[in-house]
């Protein structure tokens, strides 16, 4: 097709292309009933003039944490004005002012001026509003690790959770959301004593669950008969082996785009194969970008090693580079496994048969290439 044909070509395989956007909120949200209930239980007291329960929401990437929070907040806002729910993306808003501007905006409908108004005034306006309207406040801090990297977490927690000390009767809560296995950040003593959260775990999806979700997404996004069951199955298999549902959704979208570029009314095997080539490395780069320095060092040692690695030997190599205890080494190794960058298997040998071998799940050269690109 020439350029004009491409631009004016109005046949499309997409019934609703938004369904493949990263911020699309699906109406139907299967396999997350218990987590949604747990979130509702945390908010419930606030609807009855009590205090919301603080929560930590944990789980690997693309397990539906952000979606769950947004859906539950939407639900609450539809049914009651007794609670103000504010969702904050801490990748974007990393400062105390940034976070409170978002809360202010949610309450007053516009952001506060960036200059000329002291923080204390903005804070006061927010808390006085809550107090005089007898409304509770629940703040979801998504990807909260960013607040810790920038060292802003303690102040923000303190400001939100201890508001009742200066503003009588104000009821506030925090949902901290993190793509990890545990909440391993340490808060200051005076925050720790008031942030005793309920843990809500988003366990990884099984292959069957991914299949359900991807099938449904394809149904919403594509016209009927655009993609065959076999190709959907291939995409599901790939998403499931990478442990990342988002990979499956991306593959659907890219395959659709490639089919359109080919002026094809259906997605063919070659489109999926072409799409697969691009998503693998995008996904790996994304994961590598999220690693901390010590996680990168350990991955680098694993990448450069020639044979199967015994965890004990690996620790010795790691200790030479980073001053680390075995416990923190173990935690870093578990994190790499959790991110599905490595597999570990018990060998049955060693003390109590606890010795593990570590196997890299990606081609070492591919890892190096992606590392260089970030
Ligand atoms: N149960 C589900 N049903 C339908 N779609 C889902 C479900 N769980 C996740 N998704 C979809 O998967 C994608 C990732 O979900 P989401 O962004 O909520 O995950 P997350 O746990 O916040 O990931 P991250 O840790 O990377 O922030 C989104 O497109 C979302 O619509
Ligand atoms: Mg998220």
Describe the protein.
The chain is of the alpha/beta class and 374 residues long. The chain folds into 3 domains: 3-22 and 205-288, Orthogonal Bundle (Helicase, Ruva Protein, domain 3); 33-202, P-loop containing nucleotide triphosphate hydrolases (Rossmann fold, 3-Layer(aba) Sandwich); 291-373, Arc Repressor Mutant, subunit A (Orthogonal Bundle). It has 17 helices and 8 strands. It has a 5-stranded parallel beta sheet, sandwiched between helices. Strands 6-8-7 form a 3-stranded antiparallel beta sheet. Helix 12 (245-261) crosses helix 13. It is globular, with a radius of gyration of 24 Å. The two termini are 35 Å apart. 35% of the residues are buried. The model has no long low-confidence stretch (mean pLDDT 91). The structure holds adenosine-5'-triphosphate and magnesium ion. Magnesium ion binds at residues 65-66, 142.
Secondary structure layout:
Layout: H1 3-8, H2 33-47, E1 55-59, H3 65-79, E2 83-89, H4 96-108, H5 119-133, E3 136-142, H6 145-149, H7 153-161, H8 163-166, E4 172-178, H9 189-192, E5 198-202, H10 207-221, H11 229-242, H12 245-261, H13 269-289, H14 293-304, E6 309-310, H15 311-321, H16 326-338, E7 342-346, E8 356-360, H17 364-373
Parallel strand pairs: 1-4, 1-5, 2-3, 3-4
Antiparallel strand pairs: 6-8, 7-8
Bound molecules: adenosine-5'-triphosphate and magnesium ion (MG).
The site of magnesium ion (MG) has 3 residues, from helix 3.
């Amino acid at each position: 097709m020439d350029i004009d044909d491409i631009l004016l070509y109005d046949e499309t395989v997409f019934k609703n292309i938004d369904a493949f956007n990263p911020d699309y909120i699906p109406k139907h949200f299967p396999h997350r009933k218990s987590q949604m209930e747990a979130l509702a239980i945390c908010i419930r007291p606030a609807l009855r003039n009590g205090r919301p329960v603080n929560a930590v929401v944990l789980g690997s990437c693309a397990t539906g944490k952000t979606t769950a929070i947004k859906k539950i907040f939407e639900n609450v806002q539809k049914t009651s004005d007794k609670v103000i729910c504010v969702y904050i993306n801490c990748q974007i808003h990393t400062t105390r002012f940034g976070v409170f501007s978002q809360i202010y905006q949610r309450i007053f409908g516009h952001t506060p001026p960036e200059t000329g108004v002291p923080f204390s005034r903005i804070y006061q306006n927010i808390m006085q509003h809550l107090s005089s309207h007898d409304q509770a406040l629940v703040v979801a801090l998504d990807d909260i690790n960013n607040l810790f990297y920038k060292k802003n977490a303690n102040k923000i927690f303190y400001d939100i959770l201890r508001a009742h000390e200066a503003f009588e009767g104000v009821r506030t809560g925090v949902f901290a959301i993190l793509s990890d296995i545990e909440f391993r950040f340490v808060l200051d003593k005076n925050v720790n004593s008031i942030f005793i959260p309920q843990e809500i775990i988003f366990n990884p999806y099984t292959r069957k669950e991914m299949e359900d979700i991807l099938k449904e997404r394809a149904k919403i996004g594509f016209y009927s008969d655009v993609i065959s069951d076999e190709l959907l199955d291939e995409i599901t298999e790939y998403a499931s082996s990478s442990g990342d549902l988002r990979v499956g959704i991306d593959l659907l979208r890219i395959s659709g785009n490639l089919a359109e570029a080919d002026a094809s009314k259906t997605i063919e095997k070659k489109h999926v194969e072409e799409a697969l080539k691009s998503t693998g490395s995008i996904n790996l780069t994304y994961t590598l970008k999220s690693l901390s320095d010590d996680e990168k060092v350990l991955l680098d040692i694993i990448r450069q090693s020639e044979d199967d690695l015994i965890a004990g030997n690996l620790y010795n190599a790691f200790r030479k580079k980073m001053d680390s205890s075995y416990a923190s080494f173990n935690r870093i190794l578990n994190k790499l496994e959790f991110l599905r960058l490595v597999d570990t298997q018990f060998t049955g040998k060693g003390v109590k048969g606890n010795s593990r071998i570590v196997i890299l799940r990606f081609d070492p050269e591919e890892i190096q290439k992606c590392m260089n690109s970030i």
